[in-house]
Amino acid sequence: MTSTRLSKNLQRFIHKFESQSLLSNEQKAELDRRLEEYKQGKGKNYTWEEVKMKLRKDSKENK
Length: 63
Prior knowledge:
The chain contains three helices and no strands. The protein is elongated. The model has no long low-confidence stretch (mean pLDDT 86).
């Protein structure tokens, strides 16, 4: 296969892949909503340590 043909095939593959969505419209809307909250400073951000502590706490409570 020539490099030109390979390049064209790769471009077609990338275009096809990018046009396929793995998220539903509802999921996209939810992500957009959360992003806007984050940009406006309304969302709560957690450190990795906070997330781990919360998971450990929840795990102990559910035993």
